[in-house]
Amino acid sequence: MNILEALGDANLLGASIRDPDSWKPWRALLGAAFGLPLSEDALALYRQCTGRRVPPSGPAAYLWLVVGRRGGKSFAMALIAVFLAVFKDWRKYLSPGERAIVLLVAADREQAKILHRYCQGILSAPILQSLVWNVTASEIELKGGVTIEVVTRSYRSVRGRSVCVAVLDELAFWRDDDSANPDAEVLNAIRASMATFGSDAMVIAGSSPYARRGVLWDAFRRWHAKDDARNLVWQAATRVMNPTISQDFVDSEYERDPASAAAEYGANFRSDVAEFVDLAVLEACTADGLFELPPVSGTAYLAFCDPSGGSSDAMTLAIAHHDDGVAVLDCVREVRAPFQPEAVVEDFCATLAAYGIAKVTGDRYAGEWPREQFKKRNVDYVPSERVKSDIYRDALPLLNSRKCQLLDIRRLISQLHGLERRTARGGKDSIDHAPGAHDDLANAVAGAIVLASHHEVTLNFHVPTVGPGRSEWIAAGGLSLSAADGAYADASMPPGGWPAGSPQAGGLDAQFGWSINQRN
User: Fold this and answer.
1) In Å, how far from its chain's centre is CA 501?
2) Is the Cβ–Cβ distance between 384 and 448 less than 8 Å?
3) How crowded is residue 244: how many other Cβ atoms within 10 Å of its Cβ?
């Protein structure tokens, strides 16, 4: 029995379809995905959504669904998973005691629960219900050696299984602070787990589109509108696949935010969202195996803090210094919610003291509480002159030119790589984390390396207008007067101080009694 026949039987898959007429587009997609004969209407829709002319002659190994929000893709993928779990015999591939896993990978726990409920609902059909052996919170064990299992996106969670079918739900929105490319890493792990089942294995990946990056975008770019025996890419707007969604609702969404609606309901990848920095750039700036640098006496360190109230976001601290034209990241601290803010400030101040730092720059939007808490511990908290987006923008040239050195912290690399550059309707760019992602570490580190890259120690010299010493100082080449009367002038001292014995190192000060005041 093929999937369309099972879908047409009210005692099988058909029992879960409320409105068969509204499911005609999905019947066309399923027919194409399994290489079944297509009606004239189904063939026309196939050509519209795939950009191909010739219908497939056999089942696809990889089915990529670029479908608008509320188009019904999650339920459709659960339906395919149940069909392959029930109607295909996988036992010939299994060793004694081994079970074939139909793996549904969701973006988060809530989405995983939805997929699990979909599968349970589909299996509640009169005939199919008798095939269910056991049900837990994450598994549905079937007679015949097959288990439908639902997990959240992580390459670790898919290892060690014999996966015959994999469903990747909303993979365009997978975010993981511990992985720079969670979609690619999960898919690579799944491919290895599917090797046992050869050409019978199948991957079904579906999502509303988002930025032009990641596994889904790569599949669309490579295989949409191109005949390929193994990969079928189906792109369709919400109302194409689910005509029960009202046109008035879609029109109102386009009016509210055209760029977002074009992706959410038009199934078009966004052109106003771009990758902030390439992963290869970040890896080139990372000192492999180096997780922290100890404080070195005589080094001028700077610090940036991204505060948090302790209920949701992490609170982070980064310390850096300037070394021969390179901003070097020395230390990173991250405390994830929930936490007591005062206790975290206490710990951060101890770290700052170890590096000889009495002033920390931080997020200007955090309010007065960070300033008050740090001041209690003799540390000045200074709101940043730059907003977060500007900090990231200033950090980018340092990354691209390798004028900074990062520590080998995977969460940091993941957060930096997850940043996005968005172009507003007015044409102005902003840089921030993706929806559902975090950038607490990235913000603190970017702030610290930008501070370090601009850092110079400025000295104030009281230079006499006339008298002994004026000509000697100017002849030494150490100062260019900026005031006509010579009352005060500035000189820039390199990080680490002037060379010993130079006039700037204090010889003239000692000789003529000029006042030298260091400002950081």
Assistant:
1) 51
2) no
3) 11
pLDDT tens for each residue of 304-358: 999 988 888 899 999 999 999 999 999 999 999 999 999 999 999 999 999 999 9
106 vs 49, 191, 326, CA distance in Å? 24, 17, 41
d(CA 156, CA 176): 12
What gap in Å lies between CA 438 and CA 411, rounded to an integer?
A: 10
pTM of the shown model: 0.70
Give phi and psi for 44, each to the nearest 5: -65, -40
User: Strand ranges (DSSP E) for 185-341?
Assistant: 202-207, 231-236, 273-275, 301-306, 315-323, 326-335
- Are 508 and 473 a contacting pair, CB within 8 Å? yes
**What single DSSP character describes residue 101?**
E
Residue 147 to residue 296: CA distance in whole angstroms = 57
Of 326, 359, 342, 358, the residue nearest 449 (C-alpha):
326
In whole angstroms, give the CA distance from residue 418 to residue 426.
24
CA distance 61 to 80: 13
CB distance 477 to 498 below 8 Å: no
Q: What is the dihedral of CA 93, 96, 97, 100, to 10 degrees?
A: 0
